[in-house]
């Protein structure tokens, strides 16, 4: 995976990262390097469950290794702020098997 110009446009924006082990981490992109290691600030992990609402675990300043990233996407903050995560139910994501 190469760090293309797409990540540059997301610096200081809120993004969502799906890792190879199925974690969903949301935070403000502060930086990245040529190996797509990324630095997130004000980050939290969203833990999904079919039995209870989404739990948000505070991580703060967080670094994710590029070889552990599956998907990086821009988060629509207006849409996200209107979601009631306590009522959302979903199966946790399964890890990516290479």
TrEMBL record:
It comes from the Eukaryota. Gene3D superfamilies: 2.30.30.100. SUPFAM superfamilies: Sm-like ribonucleoproteins (SSF50182). Keywords: mRNA processing, mRNA splicing, Nucleus, Ribonucleoprotein, RNA-binding, Spliceosome. It holds the Pfam family LSM. Plays role in pre-mRNA splicing as component of the U4/U6-U5 tri-snRNP complex that is involved in spliceosome assembly, and as component of the precatalytic spliceosome (spliceosome B complex). The heptameric LSM2-8 complex binds specifically to the 3'-terminal U-tract of U6 snRNA. GO terms for molecular function: mRNA binding. PROSITE patterns: SM (PS52002). GO terms for cellular component: precatalytic spliceosome; U4/U6 x U5 tri-snRNP complex; U6 snRNP. LSm subunits form a heteromer with a doughnut shape. Residues 2-78 form the Sm domain. This is U6 snRNA-associated Sm-like protein LSm8.
